[in-house]
Amino acid sequence: MRGTGTGMISRSKVAWSVAVLCLAIVTACEPGPAVPEPTTTPARIVSMAPSLTEILFALGLGDRVVGVTSYCDYPPEARERAQIGGFVNPSVEAVLALEPDLVIVSPAAGNRDAALAVRGAGVRLEVVPAETLDDTFDAIRTVAELCGVPERGEELADSLRQRIDLVAERVAELPRVRALYCIQIDPLIAAGRGTLPAELMELAGGINVVDGDRYPRIGIESVLAESPEIILQSRMDASDPGADQASIDYWSQWTSLPAVRDGRVIVFDGTTSLRAGPRVAEAVEFIARSLHPEELE
Amino acid sequence: MAAILQFDRVSFAYRGAPLFAGLDLSVGEGEMAAVLGPNGSGKTTLVRLAVGHLEPSSGSVTLRGTRLADLSPRERARTISVVPQESRLAFDFRVREIVLMGRAPHQGVLGIDGEEDRAIALEAMEQTGVAHLAERRFHELSGGERQRVVIARALAQRPRLLLLDEPTAFLDLKHRLAVYALLTRLNRDLGITVVVVSHDINLAARHCDRVVLLHRGAVAADGPPDEVLTAAHLRSVYAVDVDIRRDAVSGRTYVFPLNPTDESPS
Amino acid sequence: MTSPVLKRSVPVLAGLVVVLVACAWLSLGVGPSGATWSDVPDLLSGTADPTTRDILLRVRLPRLILAALVGAALSGAGVVFQAVLRNPLADPYILGVSGGAALGAVLFTSVVGNAALGSALGRPGAAFGGALATLFLLSLARVRGHTEPTVLLLVGVVLNAFYSAVILFLLTAGDASRFRGALFYLVGSMASASSLPWSVLVSIAAFVAVGLGLLLIVSHRLNLLAFGEEVAGHLGVDSEKTVWGAVAGASLITAAAVAFTGLVGFVGLIVPHLVRTLAGPDHRLLLPASALGGASFLVLADTVARTVVAPGEMPVGVVTALVGGPFFLFLFLKHLRER
Fold first, then answer.
1. How many Cα neighbours within 13 Å face the side chain of C27?
2. Do C189 and A186 meet the contact criterion of CB atoms below 8 Å apart?
3. What is the complex's ipTM, to 2 decimals?
4. For residue B39, how many other CB atoms are within 10 A of its CB?
5. Rounded to an integer, what distance in angstroms lies between the CA atom of residue A266 and that of residue A248?
6. Measured between alpha carbons, how far is residue A121 from residues A94, A249, C310 in Å?
7. Distance (Å, rounded) from C-alpha C56 to C-alpha B245?
């Protein structure tokens, strides 16, 4: 069963892919540095996106990963790999210095130039979009194929899909819960239509109270008017122990919110629901349990 | 005659370039004096020292017996008013508002004008012939009108001493004559001491009883126009050969410039 | 017969107060949710539902109060800077005071992070400190006891450039969430008003009121500065003291404003101009009139900012620029044609 809500293909992703395609054509036509023969079992893989890093490790390819971004914090072993810079502004030099035989990247604002530069230097670069839920399954399969373990990809993708379908089945009978997924408090930014968290939240039986696209900066008045029954607050600063309480303190002042009255402001690790990676099922399960604590285990 | 403005052994240098060295100068109450001299002789600096805008490095400037340094700006402004060479106004004030600014040294901090202030301002505008321009904006006026408004503002201060720094520099012939005629009236009828710094040698000679000729920060000559404005003095100060004639109106000396001398300007 | 300036001032200021009250009332009743003026009686009698109460009393009311205070502070400061620099293009940010405030705020966000309520007073404090430090640096423009407006301006430009560079560096070096926080601060917003305790709002109000009051006292001397510092001196004004007193006062109320709301642009530039065109250049009237006008303007701008793209919010600085810019241009051209 396909997930509800096809993710919107972002314009930037299309433009990005077109640009890479053009460069591919150009490099193919021009005598440039020789592109190495694609190998079916790359041994030195660099991931330029946290979601792709998680996928690689989940497919058991962790020991082939030589470079990750500074945001690739899951699984813990990923932190031991060499860092190539940020997700939005990676360092081309750092990537090339690792002499990878495969670099995988998910298009995002800002990493286009770096990716093109890597390909232009003759390194094998594959674009694997990882933004929506559908992307997740495709990305798992694609990465598995690129690395010569297609059967593991199928297995992982199928198991994730099964878990998500199970949740969707169980919440189909239950009343839907008005929910807000909040990314940041200052400024107040929430997940709107066309985002991964919103998609997962709806699969888990929630109604997104945010009537906007992507990640709008919203006014608190709109939140008050929508009266969400539950607020899912993505943990903003993992390094700061006081940040969780500060978030709860912030929401606690809005006593007219049902979510606050019923004590349903949940601060949690947002990376599971913000990354189109292998933990999306875990995220859907967590959100569903939060939305329906009595009905589900 | 009591001295209203006195320079006692005043020395002043602009960033290391000495100008005045022990200058002594005394202006008596009720005088109408002109300060003449070529560029760089120190005429404008003299005005600035007299007003306290600049401080002498040694010596003192006294105003009616009190040292300038001991007077607050307000106290000083109640005695001296200045008409600068040109006036650049940043905002669009009306003539009436500008003349009223002259009352500031006599008013409270908010400068709310009372009946007396308005009466004095009106009188000043009438004396300078700009009363009919009271509601006009400064920028709409001609150069001559503007200068007369500024003089009205200086008059509204009710000064004992009026200092003018080349007040006719940008005026046409008619307005130059009008300004000097006005100054003479103010001096004779109201007893205001007038000191005019000028390039206009002949008009100054016609109207002023005393001419101070400055040369490189020192007084080259000081006295009645006929005595100061001689060919010899003018040659050594201005490096110009002149012909001394008679002014048909005042009967005083009239300087007719001839040629610059061969010497480089001293 | 009373002074003409007083006679003109009273009706103009009274009219502007009425306009401000009207704008505040309008702002209270307009928003993306359904809460509106008809809910006010329920509010007063205590029978309003909690959501409406929260929306009217804890979101809209604090925001319009903060917008009014910031609008008044920025407009008043704009009048003063234009007078002191004798430059009608001056605004409260021109001397770098706001740049210092911004740097303080961005530094705070970069170092301390985005913890929501903890920084309710921390970031404004850092911003205010940055502004004060700038005021101190500006005093370097004083040479041998004398300050040239041109030199002051130059020092301000240099400071602004330096601040911009450091801020940009901090923004790009930090992580995404802190970047967003800092960016929205730089662009200006009244959103923080809803989280401010009433005691803080009252303190800001007192600070701005006292500041504007003190500036009003020197407003006559600002008139006298119109011909330049030397002429002001001829009229008995201690120009150095007046200039620095005015700059300090205007800088402090600017700092207090931007510390909480970020750099809201255009208000301090447009409102003094508009009001000067309508009420004349006499600063004794121009200053309070601009403060009142600026308050109304920003209250309206914030109402638009938080309503038009609901559930989203526009930065209020976008509204002030989009609305104020063309309107100012129109008025200016009209004024030129009349001359």
1. 30
2. no
3. 0.89
4. 9
5. 8
6. 13, 50, 46
7. 89
Name the region of B52 (left: φ>0; alpha: ψ -120 to 50; beta: rest): left
pTM for the full model? 0.86
DSSP assigned state of C226 = G
For the record, the structure tokens of B200 come out as 């206009």
Write out pLDDT tens, residues C150-205: 888 889 999 999 998 998 888 877 766 677 777 777 888 898 888 888 988 999 99
Q: Is A12 helix (H, G, I), strand (E, B) or coil?
A: helix
Cβ pair C59, C196 in contact under 8 A? no
Measure CB to CB from residue B104 to each of C1, C235, C282 and give the nearest one. C235
Which residue type does C286 have? L
Chain C residue numbers touching B111 (CB-CB < 8 A)? 220, 223, 284
Q: Can you tell me the distance from the alpha carbon of C258 to that of C264, in angstroms, rounded to the nearest whole number?
A: 7
3-state SS assignment for residue A182: strand
Can you give the length of chain B in residues?
266
Contact, B146 vs B83, CB < 8 A? no
The type of residue at A283 is A
Q: Which residues contact A26 (CB under 8 A, 6 or more apart)?
A: none
Phi, psi at C255, each rounded to 5°: -60, -45
d(CA A148, CA A41): 5
Chain C environment of B72 (Cβ under 8 Å): 236
Of the candidates C54, C176, C177, which has its C-beta nearest A254's C-beta?
C54
CA distance B150 to B81: 10
From residue B70, alpha-carbon distances to B61, B75, C328 in Å are 10, 10, 48
- Residue A218's CB is within 10 A of a number of other CB atoms, namely 28
C88 and chain B in contact, CB less than 8 A: yes
Burial of B113 (0-12, 13-18, 19+ CB in 10 A): buried
CB C182 within 8 A of CB C105: yes
Query: From the CA of B92, how many Å to the nearest CA of chain C?
Result: 6
Which helix (H) or strand (E) is B12 found in, with range?
strand B3-14
CB C227 within 8 A of CB B89: yes
Question: A253 touching C, CB under 8 A?
Answer: yes
Q: Per the structure block, which two tokens stand in for A211?
A: 């009537």
pLDDT one-digit tens code per residue, A126-177: 999 988 999 999 999 999 999 989 999 999 999 999 999 999 999 998 999 9
| Residue whose pair of structure tokens reads 């009372």 in the numeric block | B114
